[in-house]
Amino acid sequence: MGWFRYLLGFLLVHLTLAAIRMSQPKILLPFHPRHETNFTLEATDGCFLWSSSRPDLVRIDPLEPFSIKNGEKCSLHANVIAHTKQSLRASATVYARDVLTGQSVRCDVIIDKIQTIEIVYTTTRLYLEDAPELFKLRAHDQHGSTFSSIEHFSYEWRLLNAAIVDDQSVKKSTSTTLDATKVIRILRLTDSSYEMSETVRNLESHGSLSYEILLEGLRTGSAFVQAEIIDNDLYHGIRTKPVRLSVSANVQFYPSTDVYLLPYSRLAFRLYQIKRQESTDITDLPSTRILYEVKLINNDAGYLDDQTLCCSHLDFDIFIDNNIFQYQGIIPSNEHTNQSCALLIFKPLKIGSTNIRVNLKKSNLQQTIQLSAYENLHINRNQLLLTTKSRYTLQLSHGPTHIHDQESLKYDITPIDHHVEFKQDSTNPYLLHIKCVKPIQHGQYHITKQNLVSKQNLCPIQSTISIDITCQSTIHSLSFEPILNSQCPLSNRDYIITYFDEILPVKIIAYNENQIPFDNFTSLKLDCSIKSNEDLADLRLNNPLEIIPKQKPGKILLQCSIDKIEQQIEIEFISNIQLLNSVKLIYINESLSPLEISGGSGYFKFQTNELATNPLIHLIITEDNPRLVYIKPLNFGHTTLMIIDQCLPSSKKKLDVIISDIDHLKIFGRSRLELNTTSLIYVQAMDIDGNLFNLTNIYHLINIVIEQSRKPTILFIEYEPKSNIDHQTIAYRIHTLDIGRTNLRLHTIHIKSNLIEFEVYEKLRIEPRELNVLPLSTIQLKIIGGSQLSGTTIEWLTNDTNIVDLETNNIFKTKHIGHAVIHAKSIGIDPLLGESVVYGEDFCSINVVQIHSIRLHIPTTEVLPNKFVPLTVLPYDHKKNPIVITDVFLHSLIFTWSLTNTHLAQFRPIIGNISSYTRTFVTNIETLNTGRVTIDVRLSTNSKNLNKLLLKSSHEISNSIELNILEPFYLNHFDETRTILLGPNSRLNLYHIPNDITLELLSSSKNIHFDTETKTLVTDQNQHGEAVLYMKYRGIKQEKKSLSSSIVGAYLVQVKPIHYILLQSYLPQETSALFSSIPVDYKLPLTVSYHDELGRRFDATSISLNTYSYRHDMISTNSNNTQTYEIVSLKNGSNILVFDGGLQNLRAYLPVQSNSGFVLPKTSISPLKQTYYIGDIVCFESNLNNDENNKDRWTGDDGMYVDSKYGIGQMIIDGERHLHLKIDGQTITSERFNVQVPNEIKLYKGTNDFLYDGEEGMKK
Question: What is the domain range of residue 259?
Answer without folding.
Answer: 250-283
